[in-house]
Amino acid sequence: MNIYEDLKPLQSRLKWWRILAVVLFVGLCARFWQLQIVRAPTYKELALSNHVRQIPESAPRGLVLDRWGRIIVENRPSFNLTMEKGSWDDVVLSELIELLSFSDAELAELAKERKTPSDHSPVLLKEDLTLEDVALVESRQLELPGAMIQFVPRRFYPFGNLAAHALGYVGRITEEQLEQERFEGTIANDYVGQSGVELGYNRQLMGQNGVQVVEVNSHGRRERILEERTPLWGNSVQLTLDLDLQKATEEAFEGQSGAAVVLNLRNGEVMALASSPSFDPNLFSGRFKAAEWKAVAQDEEHRLQNRALQGRYAPGSVFKLILAAAALEEGKISPTKRLYCGGGLRFYGKWFPCHSASGHGFVNLHEALVQSCNSYFYQLGVELQIEAIARYARTFGLGSPTGIDLPFEVSGLVPDPEWKRQARQEPWYAGETVSVSVGQGSVLVTAMQMAQIAAIVGSSGDVFRPHVFLKPLPAGALADPAPTGSQGEPIRRLAFHDSTWQVLQDAMWSVVNESGTGWRAGLPRVGVSGKTGTAQVASMSNLSETDDDDRPEHLRNHAWFIGYAPRKNPELALAILVEHGGQGGRTAAPIAQKIFQAYFEGQKGLEADDTRQALLVRN
Amino acid sequence: MILDRRFWFGIDWLLVLGLALAAGLGVAAIYSATQGGPNPDYYRRQLLWIVLGFALMLLVMAIDYHSLSDHAELFYLAVAGLLVYLLIFGSLRAGTNRWLELGIFTLHSGELAKLASVALLAKYLAAVRKNRLGTAEVAITGALVGIPVLLVILQPDLGTAATLAFAYAVLCLLAGVRGRLILVAAVVFALALPFGWSFVLKDYQKERVLAFLDPNLDPRGAGYQSIQSTIAVGSGGLTGKGWLEGSQSQLQFLPAPHTDFVFAVIGEELGFVGVVAVLVLYLMITLRSLEAARRARDRLGIYLVAGILAMFIFQALYNMAMVGGLVPIKGFPLPLVSYGGSSMMTTLIGFGLILNVRMRRFVN
Hints:
The structure holds two protein chains of two kinds. Chain A is α+β, with helices and mostly antiparallel strands. Chain A folds into two domains: 53-239, Penicillin-binding protein 2a (Domain 2), CATH 3.90.1310.10; 243-279 and 304-468 and 482-601, DD-peptidase/beta-lactamase superfamily (Beta-lactamase, 3-Layer(aba) Sandwich), CATH 3.40.710. In chain A, the strands form seven sheets. In chain A, strands 2, 3, 4, 5, 10 and 18 form a six-stranded mixed sheet that branches. Chain A has a five-stranded antiparallel sheet with strand order 12-11-22-21-20. A three-stranded antiparallel sheet of chain A has the order 1-8-9. Chain A is elongated, with a radius of gyration of 35 Å. Chain B is mainly alpha-helical. Chain B has a two-stranded antiparallel sheet with strand order 1-2. In chain B, β1 (99-102) and β2 (105-108) form a beta hairpin. Chain B starts with a helix and ends in a 5-residue tail after the last helix. Chain A binds chain B through residues 1-2, 5-7, 9-11, 13-14, 17-18, 21-22, 24-25, 28-29, 31-33, 35-37, 39-40, 42-44, 46-48, 50-51, 215-219, 223, and chain B through 36, 66, 129, 131, 170, 173-176, 228, 230-238, 247-248, 251-253, 267, 271-272, 275-276, 279, 282-283, 286-287, 290, 293-294, 296, 298-299, 302, 306, 313, 317, 320-321, 324-326, 363.
């Protein structure tokens, strides 16, 4: 083996291998330079989203309390089933669908949810799990990687339908709402108020969402918490509403549709606000109860509509109060002057009837108001002219929102030639003035405005901005019962002559207490004053109310009653509307009576101490 | 002889240092990769393999490689017999029957096949005392390598087969072949590709190749390993996330972090600095080994070193390129660093031979 070998050719080939080896290693170096230096930021982010998850923790909304400190809106614990987009697993999903019963609506919602563009928030699979379902999923955590049970506080309305329109409801924020200034600071998937106090005071009620930043392994199992920000409760809101009075108000409707607004006459506090029929706002706290939601939203009775703020009706004879005030202030009539009613009058070739076919004979202003004589006010209206009527109607707050602190209030309509030219491109016909004089024709009002008219007359001209908000409360604080009747500062005053108010107040007293149209509202020990009204649904030629009962219900007239009590130093003003209730005196006045009775003869405020105790326990 | 002063004098200590450093780095990476898993004590077993490996290396160095080469045929036949035996009676493990159960230790038969084949190949080529191989010699050596290659393909262990084929090609080129023959080989290889795709590659292997071409085709399936590996390495940045701090490695996003993807653990936790350190170590080992080949006193020495080094480089480069997302996923360990007794011991035995050749470069 020791023979000399010529190794030169082999050794020279080895040189090339050496160069090749160096080149290859340098090439690898370049590749890792590219990965680790040039593209490092991208990969660092990818690694981060691989193992770091942000789990949002919803903040409970603040409580809503009535004026006595009773909780009307709270939160209840609930559990959602979610899955991270980052650890999405179709096999696990189908196992979950098999394990828990999913409704068709839930499956449809789920399919929709999965199509939404990917962010890092977990996908909601099923909402509001039963405790059995929670236990079922938790016990199989290892077999169901990626599935997560999330604790979520859910809005709860313990009284169900009660005051639903005033309180409103919550729902997941919509795309449009995300853009609005009102919802500044909210993020997608937040639950926000969608109507009522929930919407109007959303900012106060909303808490601050927390977040849990956790590290997960490749199976989606949480390894440790990297960072945690606990959710902050929203502030509580105490309302002016009196739960007892609200209950009495809603019960008084006995299934009839309509609206009621009960105001504190001395400061504009809303004591009760009802719209009938009502709905259960609890239905809206979940997202998957789509079928029930739609049933409520689209039902023929328009339950979701707040008739007290959004329903527009002709004021009917209630409008005569405004005519009377206008005529007196303008000096068009003396309270003692008598005008003749022969069962109606002919104006411009057209017959305008009165309720009494045989006529009221010669009546003065007081009698005309008490007996609600149309003929008298036809003549007054023609004398005043439409411009003056419109001016006084606006003075009383008609034609514009009252400014109540609840969303979606409508203006109603005070017609005049200017409006008609713009809206209909037609001139004003003199006959329209005659109709408007008795609160028919184009004039439209809301129950809210009508309650304010009652309050203005009762207080001899004080105008308050109606409100349901009493005061804010820090989260978790106890509420003090708020006594009623403290004198507030009016936003404006109607500076009429005292004699004018006297005429109106005397007439309203007689309407209820001296065999007038509103006697059914009477409570001798309280002293109720009021005015009835009947808003026409059918056309003018059917003005006579006598045959109203024979009509099919949807053609029957709407019934109004507005009033206040007591006579001296009044406290409470209200307006009642009963849709298709026929004569105001017959259907609306009894409801008013029950409300006044509940307030003045009820157990007002006595339960407050008990409620404070209950609050202490809860917190 | 081990007691002889000249024995210690002839050792290439720089090469030994490189081997020891690489193996030590491996232990650290394995320790980090297994802490969260079910086998946190793997680093200790790896240490044992290293100690055993160096002992075997010393043993191999003590005996002149010429004497060892005398038994090459016997070794070759024994290993071929073992491969056949395993094919028929072998226990399936991880879908292959490449493992020989030896009590507590299971030996990877492919590793033995590589050593045996290269030893016989070197011995045959050394006997051809020409500066260029004839067609007959190419064919005979091809058959010598072809038998174990076929047997390991049947296991199936394409990685070992490819490593052997690469070593064969390197040795042929080193021994010298006609240009025409290289051309013919290239054409045959090109023609064999579609055949191999259809008949040799299993479905999972095809998936791996497709996933390599576009990892995002199936990011949760075949492309997953490749994606997670590049994320791990890329997110390491210049200096890494720190030892035991790599999120990809520690939270089980990285597949096989202590074996095939151990280099990704180094890339993530020690960053580009760590990667370059490993590359420099491997380059040093390569250059020192080439130096041993250059200074070898005969053809047998040159071929032995070149064959062993070719297999080592092939595996190391492929593994690193795989971690870097440059080539399809293939279950290659990174020699010296990845966890595994068979690979560690055969690699160190191989380097024992390389050191052996260098020590005996002077004619006694």
